[in-house]
Design goal:
InterPro entries: aa-tRNA-synth_I_CS, aa-tRNA-synth_Ic, Rossmann-like_a/b/a_fold, Trp-tRNA-ligase, Trp-tRNA-ligase_bac-type, Trp-tRNA_synthetase. By secondary structure, the chain is mainly α. The chain has 14 helices and five strands. Bound molecules: tryptophanyl-5'AMP (TYM).
Length: about 325
């Protein structure tokens, strides 16, 4: 079976972007492939979370993975820092990751722009850590949203470079994966760009949001004065809301509002109400399971422990091979 790996940073609650960009594919892939899904706690250290926040967020992602339907009996779920082999591979990959290419990474440039006071080495070498996550299990399929595509390209570069340097055909090439035709980018509620935590809480619908919160957030979503001419293309903010509707609502509902828009008969109040209700219907079962599972700390501990054991078996094998290729051998 092909090996699949993906992860999410524990920076808070999962939102619809995480779900439709990544987790929905995790849930489907687990029955078809040999899957590893992890919680990227080392990656989240770039922003210096407090120990309490970090610990709570890690637990949170674990709970939400399970609530979304990842089955620990089928897939391996683990916390990144429980598998120290990853950090050793990260060190080796860093030796062949060049300053120029790391600095050119779009996500690095974005971080430098948005937070110029915290441009640390971990941020610069984020792509090598991500490559280590993937290559440690020699994964070939990586279910992620559109924003991770460049990181996958860098992973292939680092893996191929390692292969060339040690004259070995060792690491296979991993590719971003989605069951949908294209990689997904879920828009936020702020009228521009993607749904994301760094874009602010009001921009995100979290899986754990209550119906009340969802209604409020959607009611406040950026829109405009409405179409003035029939059959015109939609401005970005409106298109984003339609894209969200496409994700959570039925095809009939979407077609209905699309027609109203084209005939200049749309009332954004009604449109948003419908969108909010459909989000609530989508979220409710997941939200219920989140509340249930998070109470069961023993179970969570056991899932994480077993996951780490399984992940380490695979990671140790890779590291053993890698050390040998590098030349760390007994005399
Ligand atoms: P992170 O934690 O930012 O996001 C987790 C996953 O959610 C997807 N995603 C989205 N997809 C569509 N639309 C959105 N608005 C949206 N927001 C987030 C992301 O594409 C991602 O799949 N670097 C990664 C974590 C990581 C990783 C890995 C992933 C570390 N090592 C190895 C795969 C393999 C990240 O920061 O994702």
């Amino acid at each position: 079976k092909e090996i699949v790996l993906s992860g999410i940073r524990p920076t808070g609650k999962l939102h619809l972007g995480n779900y439709f960009g990544a987790v929905t594919n995790f849930v489907k892939m687990q029955h078809e492939y040999n899957c590893f899904f992890f919680i990227a706690d080392l990656h989240s250290l770039t922003t210096h979370p407090t120990p309490t926040d970090l610990n709570g967020y890690v637990k949170n992602v674990l709970v939400e993975y399970l609530a979304c339907g990842i089955d620990p009996e089928v897939a391996t779920i683990y916390v990144q820092s429980d598998v120290p082999e990853v950090t050793e591979l990260y060190l080796y990959l860093n030796m062949n990751a060049y300053m120029g290419e790391l600095e050119r990474s779009t996500s690095f440039k974005d971080k430098v722009r948005s937070n110029p006071d915290n441009v640390n080495a971990g941020l610069l070498t984020y792509p090598s850590l991500m490559a280590a996550d993937i290559l440690i299990h020699r994964a070939t399929k990586v279910p992620v949203g559109k924003d991770q595509e460049q990181h996958l390209e860098m992973t292939r570069t680092f893996g191929n470079r390692f292969n060339r340097l040690y004259n070995a055909d060792y690491f296979p090439e991993p590719f971003a994966f989605s069951y949908s035709e294209n990689l997904v980018k879920v828009p936020g509620l702020d009228g521009k760009g993607k749904m994301g935590k760094s874009e602010g809480d009001a921009n995100c619908i979290y899986l754990a949001d209550s119906p009340e919160v969802i209604r409020k957030k959607v009611a406040k979503a950026v829109s405009d004065g409405g179409p003035t001419e029939e059959n015109q293309p939609k401005p970005e903010a409106i298109q984003n809301l339609f894209d969200l509707m496409k994700i959570v609502s039925s095809a009939d509902t979407l077609a209905h509002f699309d027609e109203l828009y084209n005939k200049c008969g749309i009332r954004y109040g009604d449109f948003k109400k419908q969108l909010a209700e459909d989000m609530i219907v989508f979220n409710s079962p997941i939200r219920e399971r989140i509340l249930e599972i998070s109470a069961d700390t023993d179970y969570l501990r056991q899932v994480a422990q077993r996951g780490a054991e399984k992940a380490r078996i695979s990671a140790r094998q890779t590291l053993k091979d890698v050390r040998e290729l590098i030349g760390f051998k007994p005399f």
